[in-house]
Amino acid sequence: MTIQEIDRARVWHPYTQMQTAPPPVPIVRAEGVYLYTEDGRRILDGISSWWVNIHGHGHPRLNEALARQARELEHVMFAGFTHRPAAELADRLVALLPRGLTRIFYSDNGSTAVEVALKMSFQYWQNVGQPQRREFIALDHAYHGDTVGAMSASAESPFTAPFQRLLFPVERAHAPYCFRCPVGCDRATCSIDCLRRLESILASRGDSIAAVLIEPMLQAAGGMIVWPVEFLTGVRQLCDRYRVLMIADEVLTGFGRTGKMFACEHGPVRPDIACLSKALTGGYLPLGVTAATEEIYASFLSNDRLKTFFHGHSFTANPLACAVALASLDLLIEDRSMDRVARLEALLRSRFTALRSRPVVADARILGGVAALELRAGQGGYLEPIGARLAAEFLSRGLLLRPLGNILYFMPPYVITDAEAHWAIDQIEEVLAGTRGD
Ligand code: PLP
User: Fold this and answer.
1) Alpha-carbon span 435 to 74, nearest angstrom
2) Which of the residues 17, 50, 163, 226 has an alpha carbon 20 to 30 A from that of 269?
3) Backbone conformation region of residue 423, classed left if phi is above 0, alpha if psi is from -120 to 50, else beta
4) Same-domain check for residues 131 and 28
């Protein structure tokens, strides 16, 4: 039986259960920016396989790190035991992260990194004698993952709609979506007026707030919304003023994607808690990190067992994942990844800014190695059919792009060459030339 035959009979794929959806493409091999299909086609991975890959697929250094670790220790539970890859990775991350984040709590994906951050901040306030701080503030258009806590923090969307009654309430502040300014201002003249909503929530009930959760500088799944840096610094100032914790969800933005090692560096701001995953392992294996300050960590240190953070997954700090993450951090430096992202950003700026003049393009947004076009299509949003139509057209041309409804974006691995990037953007240009908005 072919992969597709077995798959069709037995596998339940995320997001693609519509009867009209094309069958999943069987991939048998990958190298650099390319995926290779069972029937011998080559596809350029223009979205880094859901935003995880940075050094390219099948990288010899990462392969070797994984093989070497597999020969020594594939896994051991992480309660009462430890191992060199986890200890060293924690040490390396602390050196790399914004100053003050000194403790690394491991889990195993982006949603769990967020889930841990929510629980950790919630319990922190109990541990320090302020149990009334039990609410969270998150932003419009937020996406923080698919588990129940992460969905609660996420803005309402088709991902969360069926579960609304299952989710806990979260206060919602404006996002700085400049193209569709929530308070009707113009970026050229505004004073980040959209921040006022966050301020008024904090002013009226700051004492009951545990934390403000944000995706710094780039709200990805909610529409590739690029922030003015003043919003980020404003959030930090407000969190300081009202003494609430600031959680930075850097699951997507971490490890260079926005042109800085962490998006908080654009401020620069220092969050109290940061969530990492995706590119943490170079896109090889699932791993989650929730980094916290020493002060937060200290509040859990007690002989009172009820102050303990009882949260641990079977695969917490998996040694294989930690070993690949260490090799990926080496590569970020040796391969001059940040220079690569800067070069890619310049290329994206010149090509995508030019695309802004197309009638179907409403807005172009670029930050680091991410470029997005907001297309004129219906009401907009994730369910706009233009997304699936364009994805199919790009796939037939050998390019993997997966628009979020009317948001078409390009987010390749950092190792993409100029020629490969230009080829991909040529495809976008050609396809858009024949595309009318819906
Ligand atoms: N947080 C952000 C900002 C994300 O973009 C994502 C996934 O896209 C997540 C959390 C959830 O990560 P995962 O898919 O690994 O659970």
Assistant:
1) 49
2) 50
3) alpha
4) no
pTM for this structure? 0.98
Q: What span, in angstroms and rounded, lies between the C-alpha atoms of 277 and 113?
A: 7
Same domain, 212 and 342: no
List, for residues 66-114, the tens digit of each pLDDT value: 999 999 999 999 999 999 999 999 999 999 999 999 999 999 999 999 9
Place of tokens 């035959």: 5
Q: How many domains does the chain divide into?
A: 2
Q: Are strands 42-45 and 34-37 parallel, antiparallel or unpaired?
A: antiparallel
Identify the segments of the chain with pLDDT beneath 50.
none
Complete edge-to-edge strand list for the sheet that includes strand 273-276: 101-107, 288-293, 273-276, 245-249, 209-214, 135-139, 171-173
Output the ligand 1 site: residues, CB below 6 A. Answer: 109-111, 114, 143-145, 215, 220-221, 249, 251-252, 277
For 60, half-sphere exposure in the C-beta direction (CA atoms, 13 angstrom radius) is: 1
Specify whether 186 is catalytic.
Answer: no
Q: Which residues contact 6 (CB under 8 A, 6 or more apart)?
A: none
Indicate the residue among 304, 333, 362 that finishes a domain. Answer: 333
Please give the angle made by the CA atoms of 262, 95 and 33, to the nearest 5 degrees: 45
Taking CA atoms, 384 is separated from 154, 180, 407, 409, in Å, by 20, 17, 9, 15
What is the three-class DSSP state of 11? coil
The CATH number of residue 201's host domain is 3.40.640.10
| DSSP letter (8 states) at residue 9 | H
Same domain, yes or no: 328 and 340: no
Among candidate residues 143, 284, 382, 414, the one labeled active-site is 143
Given 292, 307, 333, the domain boundary residue is 333
| 216: its two tokens | 């710094």
- Contact status, residue 232 vs residue 309, Cβ threshold 8 Å: no
- pLDDT digit string, tens, across residues 349-380: 999 999 999 999 999 999 999 999 999 998 88
Structural domain span for residue 270? 63-333
Q: Which amino acid is at 57?
A: H
Choose the residue to mutate in 115, 251, 370 for probing ligand 1, maximizing ligand atoms within 8 Å of C-beta: 251
